Amino acid sequence: MSAAAHSVVEPGLTSKRVAGAIVILYAVITMVPLFWIFATSFKTPPDSIAYPPKILFEPSIEGYCNLFTTRTRQTAEYIASLPPATSFCDETTRKRNMVIAGQSNFLPRFVNSLIIAFGSTFCAVFLGTLAAYGFSRFKVPLADDLLFFILSTRMMPPIAVAIPIYLMYRELGLSDTALGMILLYTAVNVSLAVWLLKGFIDEIPREYEEAAMIDGYTRMGAFFKVVLPQATTGIAATAIFCLIFAWNEYAFAALLTSGTAQTAPPFIPTIIGEGGQDWPAVAAGTTIFLVPILVFTILLRKQLLRGITFGAVRK
Amino acid sequence: MSGKTIAKRQGRWPVYLRRGILENIAIGLIGLGFLMLFQPFALVLYTFSFITMLVGTVMFIVVSKFPE
Amino acid sequence: MTDSQSSVLDRTAERLAAATPVPLARKVRGLSDKGLAWLFITPTMLLLLAINIFPLIWAIYLSFTNYRANRPNEIVKNVGLSNYQRILGDQDIWIAMQATAHFVFWTIALQTLIGFTLAYLIDRKFRGHAFWTTVILVPMMLSPAVVGNFWRFLYQPQIGLFAYAVSFFTGISPTEIEMLSNVHLAPWAIIIVDTWMWTPYVMLICLAGLRSIPDYIYEAAEVDRASHWRQLWSITLPMALPFIMLAVLFRGIENFKMFDMVNLLTGGGPGSTTEVASITLKREAFEKWRTGYSSAFAIILFVAVFGLANIYVKVLNRVKNR
Q: Is residue B68 part of a domain?
């Protein structure tokens, strides 16, 4: 009996090793495209399009230089007449017979992404916490229908939503503004926030609040004193999920913003150099864009399952 | 809801209008609508896929209010 | 909760209580639970009504008109159901639906197969499985647009890593592997990227399903000397089925409305071989500016998604109660 139970809970060593080998092989293959983005961002443009693809190369930050600057082609005489280059970027640009003409749009677009992602996350989590508490603790008529309605708004096809939103924003003057995008992303994220946070708040025993209310706190006071501190982990996890969604979103951003409020995802594919896409610069932009997500994924790894099932599966 | 009220409501409610069966029919209609939307064989099936899905979805929402 | 934690909480609460102005505090104290419930829920509802429901109703209205957003001054005519009739009788849109079907079917098939297998293997709990699980999960968190855009580089016929790897293993000349411009390969190019990206999603949910199966069932099966295959077929798969359904439905909904990755990778081309429904919709709405017509198409897609979402929530509740 004990042997049988053992084989269930603890699979044999060989089967473990084989399973491990296959999983690790898959994980390594799945990482190759990401590694390639990272590697390409440190290549020079000629290295990036070499055949066969170069795995070993001399690292260069030219991609990052090109990402942040715009350049114009000049004659060799003009470049020779310039004062000595002051930075590495200056130098590499001149080697290609070009001079730096100014800043590219990457930084403003990146800042837009930050503003919109953080702004909408804050609003979504704020509204979501209140609504989740309402649904979790009070008898709300038609609660199930309201919750389904909230969730279904997230499932709508973004392009289908974008058509009327485009017209509405045009009427209201919200087209291509950060405020418009924040409102839109808040609306999309609040559904996730309500569902996730309701799960987290459901897990906090009601007795804690009841005890606080017997101690003389109001419902509101108990909410601040007991529920919010207890729900901190949940709120943080929810915030990171909302942040990642708003950060990654492309469809709305591509259709509803074109200039001042454009975020990084629709901008990065438009980075072009001479004679087509400047792949090291694109890779550099992609790397900078992805690093925060990698950090968040590692922070969130225990909560991921909850996040992707709207709080239904808690492990 | 207490067990008593459920029993009462079930008593009045005909068996063939119970939620479980009708919900499955509605799900079947939605699934059928998708098959009709996606199939490459007959344009006419595609034409009527939308109405099938619409009926299935509306039916699902309505019958989810029926007692178990 | 430890004592030090609770004292910190006490102090925070006191500070909050002190910070609340007296009239407001009194007002809040006066609110009944019911009033408080509505106070908490209404803002969210209002936002969703303004940003989701109002536009949806507008779109339904527009779907019965011939409105064009690039000509706002033209007289809007009511055309009844003719937009719907045209879309549902249109050969080209039917073909776009088949492209969507091809994409949805194969991504779900591959992701479920690979995802479940990975989950099954990870559930062997080999050493370091937690770390490798996290590594595998990374692609699903990334931006489909930004990463999809980079796959364009990987897919380049000669210089791209994908073509190089394929030619390295098969011996086909790398210039012939035109993943994005060959009509037969392009539909598979988007399937590969989607599978790469979302297999972890299916895997994670399947893993939760496998872990939800209590050990004693397997112990009983061992006592009955059921073979491993038999255990897989009669215990593991049926018991993990609600979870697999959950993953399949969600991926189905997501891929049915897939836009960002495909738009950047192929833009619907070559020809219209990868023109999935959302790409067609975007072309009609934001390139040809047939707003009324595209609104009708949007409503059709919306009803389809809404139907699936209903089933999804039903499965979700079933899984929740496990």
A: no
Q: Is the pLDDT of residue C99 over 60?
A: yes
- Whether residue C74 is contained in a domain is answered as no
Give the pTM: 0.88
Contact (CB<8Å) B30/C310: yes
Query: Regarding beta strands A272-273 and A276-277, do their DSSP bridges make them parallel or antiparallel, or are they unpaired?
Result: antiparallel
Q: List chain B residues with CB under 8 Å of C84.
A: 50
Query: Do C237 and C206 fall within a single domain?
Result: yes
Residues facing residue A161 across a β-bridge = none
Poorest-pLDDT segment among A247-251, B34-38, C5-9, C194-198: C5-9
Top mean pLDDT of A279-283, C111-115, C151-155, C178-182 is at C111-115
Q: Which amino acid is at A172?
A: L
Question: Does residue A160 carry a pLDDT above 70?
Answer: yes
Number of inter-chain CB pairs under 8 A, A vs C: 338
Kindly identify which residue of chain C lies nearest to residue B37, measuring between CA atoms: C97
Does the distance separating the beta carbons of A37 and C143 come in below 8 Å? no
Report how far residue B4's alpha carbon sits from residue B48's, in angstroms, rounded to the nearest whole number. Answer: 44
Interface membership of B46 toward C (CB under 8 Å): yes
Binned at pLDDT 50, 70 and 90, residue C222 comes out as confident
The yes-or-no verdict on residue A49 having pLDDT over 90 is: no
CATH of the domain at C164: 1.10.3720.10
Distances (CA, A) of B54 to A129, C61, C255, C301: 34, 17, 20, 11
Pick from C37, C200, C319: CB nearest A134? C37
Q: Do C43 and C145 lie in a common domain?
A: no
Convert the pLDDT of each residue in C283-312 to its tens digit: 999 999 999 999 999 999 999 999 999 999
Same domain, C120 and C164: yes
In a domain, C73, yes or no: no
ipTM confidence score: 0.89
DSSP-derived 3-state class of residue A215: coil
- Please compute the mean of the pLDDT values over residues B19-24 and round it to a whole number: 86
Contact (Cβ atoms closer than 8 angstroms) between residue A236 and residue A227: no
Rg of chain A over all Cα atoms, to the nearest angstrom? 26
Structural domain tally of chain B? 1
User: Residue A236: which pLDDT band, with cuts at 50, 70 and 90?
Assistant: very high
CB spacing of A248 vs C299 below 8 angstroms: no
Co-location of C174 and C221 in the same domain = yes
φ/ψ of residue A73, rounded to 5: -80, 140
Same domain, C299 and C157: yes
- Tracing tokens 């990401």 back to the chain, one arrives at A34
- How far is the alpha carbon of C314 from chain B, nearest alpha carbon, in Å? 10
Phi-psi region of C258 (alpha: psi -120 to 50; beta: other; left: phi over 0): beta
Q: Are residues C132 and C98 in the same domain?
A: yes
Domain check: are C114 and C58 in the same one?
no
Mean pLDDT of B6-13: 56
Nearest to C219 among A4, A31, A150 (CB): A4
Structural domain including C288 reads 85-320
| Domain coverage including residue B28 | 3-63
Is the pLDDT at C22 greater than 70, yes or no?
A: no
Residues 280-309 of C with CB under 8 A from B: 300, 303-304, 306-308
Whether C78 maps to a domain, the answer reads: no
Residue C142 lies in a domain: yes
